[in-house]
Specification:
The protein has 229 residues and is an alpha+beta fold. The chain is built from eight helices and twelve strands. A four-stranded antiparallel β-sheet has the order 1-8-3-6. A four-stranded antiparallel β-sheet has the order 2-7-4-5. Helix 2 runs antiparallel to helix 3, helix 5 packs across helix 6 and helix 5 crosses helix 8. The mean pLDDT is 88. This is Crp/Fnr family transcriptional regulator. GO terms for molecular function: DNA-binding transcription factor activity. InterPro entries: cNMP-bd_dom, cNMP-bd_dom_sf, Env_Response_Regulators, RmlC-like_jellyroll, WH-like_DNA-bd_sf, WH_DNA-bd_sf.
Length: 229
């Protein structure tokens, strides 16, 4: 991967200087995983920072018993593992590939060295971590809102953050309803009914054969997402 493409693909690296980008590329390790494969296991957190070159992953919480809950869905251009390299406490999460995925990893030691060398990269990472914190806070604020509002917020966020524009609207991966339900903090049955209703209205179009969800009418979805009580 060329330095310029590396910078353009990952918002985290958009403000890094050329020397930093060259160094990161020189020490990066490439990975490829098929769908449903564990990308990062619970006991591996803290070893590296991972950048998503293509594909979709989910971050899961492993709670007591058999319950597994999806905490976040991440796509192309995002990264994960950055907090664990600064926090050595035990982890109770893992990362699973939703689709075939390509990643680049940078070891924790080398990434921390880079942060010390490039203050702009350090500042940019803090900005993106704060953005994630705000997204988590928004989900908390929405906890008492109707299920349709919560799900619309999830779809709009995924579309705006990772979506690909096409003639059929904004395309995102056909994320399993269980994962959409977990991230939206609603039930799977509710998610199924709402997605069917959105499809019947023509606001979305699910294309299972290509593993795509077309967000056909982002404006209407955004309006629904803003209808808080």
């Amino acid at each position: 991967m060329q330095t310029e493409a590396f910078s353009e693909l990952f918002p985290l690296l958009s403000s890094a200087n050329a020397e930093t980008l060259d160094w990161l590329l020189s020490v990066a390790v490439e990975h490829e995983y098929p769908a449903n494969r564990a990308v990062l296991m619970e006991d591996a957190w803290g070893n590296a920072v991972y950048f998503i070159v293509s594909g979709w992953v989910k971050v899961r919480r492993l709670s007591s018993g058999e319950e597994v809950v999806t905490l976040a869905i991440l796509g192309k251009g995002d990264f994960f593992g950055e907090m664990a390299i600064l926090d050595e406490s035990p982890r109770s999460t893992d990362v699973i590939a939703l689709s075939p995925v390509k990643l680049i990893s940078i070891s924790a030691q080398r990434f921390i060295q880079t942060l010390f060398k490039d203050p702009q990269l350090h500042h940019r990472m803090l900005q993106l971590m704060v953005r994630r914190l705000r997204q988590t806070n928004l989900r908390f604020q929405l906890r008492h809102q109707p299920p349709a509002v919560k799900l619309a917020n999830t779809l709009v966020t995924l579309g705006e953050t990772y979506g690909h524009e096409s003639s059929n609207g904004t395309e995102i991966y056909n994320i399993p309803f269980k994962d959409l339900a977990d991230v939206s903090d609603i039930g799977v049955e509710e998610t199924t009914k709402i997605m069917e209703k959105l499809d019947s209205k023509g606001w979305i179009k699910i294309e299972p054969s290509n593993n795509l969800i077309h967000l056909v009418n982002m404006k209407q979805l955004a309006n629904l997402a803003s209808k808080t009580q």
